[in-house]
Specification:
elongated; 421 residues; alpha+beta; 23 strands
């Protein structure tokens, strides 16, 4: 599959810059009027590509642009293509006089759709000209004939907490552009999905929680109890260059440093002391939980100036007790962590026919254990919210490692102190 960008640039006269393809030899777009763009280079993000291609073809440097979405092209004659569709209304520089791709012409908005172009282009051009924010489509050709055009746009369904006030969210699997086992909002970076689609998924997730910047802090989760104090030096773009830590949690008191953890049954936990400007994000699988990542997270937040009595905590979507069968060793570790209170958070599994107890298997309420541990550490119970959604019970809404037997994408959970103005 090839990846490309296409941008329609607008000026203050309500005109769009179009490229009349009349110069290039053996041009698939010969005679057509289209926007400006081209193929992504190795390791290049769509944003980087559109800025580069626009400058190379027009001499203009984009200063304000928007990715509307992804148009997926299928053909019986050409390689499949992911085209990232952009519009722009801010730029510096002067238009070059001679473009080797064709003739550059400013065309009034009302005339754009009247010019010869690919039939499928008009289906995404019309909503773009009308100012539609999200445009995702599947366009299929046989030869030069359009045989299918589907609207793939769906809303990003991000879950928010009632106890947190900073920009934050727990993702679901809806509203993205990935396909196959990763459909559709996969935020896992190392699971085999096309990295550029994951990059676009992150753009949508970040926008859904009100975070404008596109870099954040994340790393390799190892089911331990290490928590890293994150700074701006740790920021990276999805799949971009940046520091990778093998930890299961982050805390920070720096504005403009979003912190992210990944889950697909394990428990995501977001923490906030708004009064003192400190946040945290923890990946709480059962191993991290019984290793007391909760205490490590709280201690690191206090080190940055937080007060336990002011910390608010949201415990996000994860596998719930009815689906979480564990062995006796897990229950014993939970009892070691929180003492006799652990007995309130597991049930012995019984034989459905005889009613006899199956002694070596238990149904564990991991969210309840995590909440109990936080209260033991000094967090007020009324400041802790449990979001009661089970990842395994809702495979159409969430990624679940157990349900898919590992063939899946990942959720992400994020929180950020807004950058200083």
């Amino acid at each position: 599959m090839i990846a490309t960008t296409l941008c329609y640039i607008k000026n203050n006269k309500d005109e769009y810059l179009l490229l009349h393809r009349v110069k290039k030899v053996n041009d698939i777009n010969e005679g057509k009027w289209i926007g400006v763009g081209g193929k992504l280079e190795e390791g290049e993000t769509p944003d980087q590509c559109v800025v580069r291609e626009v400058y190379e073809e027009t001499g203009l440097t984009l200063t304000n642009y928007h990715c509307h979405g992804l148009v997926k092209f299928i053909s019986d004659q050409y390689e499949a293509e992911d085209m990232y569709l952009y519009s722009a209304d801010g730029y510096d520089g002067s238009l070059i006089e001679d473009c080797n791709e064709g003739e550059l012409v400013w065309v009034h908005k009302d005339k754009v759709l009247e010019l010869p172009t690919w039939e499928g282009d008009k289906y995404f051009l019309k909503p773009l000209l009308e100012g539609q924010n999200r445009i995702d489509m599947l366009v299929e050709y046989k030869g030069d004939e359009l045989v299918r055009c589907e609207n793939l746009a769906s809303p990003v369904n991000t879950i928010k907490s009632n106890v947190l006030t900073y920009p934050h969210g727990f993702s679901t699997r809806t509203g993205g552009v990935s396909e196959g086992i990763y459909k559709s909002l996969n935020l896992g970076m190392k699971l085999g999905d096309d990295w550029r689609r994951v990059w676009e998924n992150y753009n949508r997730f970040l926008s859904s929680v009100g975070i404008k910047q596109r870099d954040f802090v994340c790393g390799n989760q190892v089911h331990g109890n290490s928590v890293h104090i994150a700074t701006s030096k740790d920021l990276r773009v999805a799949y971009g260059k940046g520091n990778i830590y093998e930890v299961d949690g982050y805390v920070t008191n720096e504005p403009g440093v979003p912190i992210v953890v990944f889950t697909a049954d394990c428990v995501p936990v977001l923490l906030e002391d708004r009064k003192h400007g400190v946040i945290g994000a923890l990946h709480c699988g059962w191993r991290s939980t019984v290793a007391d990542i909760e205490k490590e997270g709280i201690d690191k937040m206090v080190l940055l100036g937080a007060r336990k009595e002011n910390i608010h905590i949201a415990i996000g979507p994860a596998i719930e007790a009815s689906c979480f069968e564990v062995g006796s060793e897990v229950v014993e570790a939970a009892e070691k962590l929180i003492g006799g209170a652990a007995s309130r958070f597991y049930e012995k599994e019984t034989d459905k026919v005889t009613g006899e107890i199956i002694r070596c298997k238990f149904l564990l309420n991991l969210k309840g254990i995590i909440k109990e541990r936080f209260t033991q550490l000094g967090v007020k119970e009324e400041f802790i919210e449990i979001i009661n959604e089970c990842t395994m019970c809702n495979p159409d809404k969430f990624w679940s490692h157990r349900y898919t037997k590992g063939q899946r994408g990942s959720q992400a959970s994020i929180i950020s102190i807004p950058p200083l103005k």
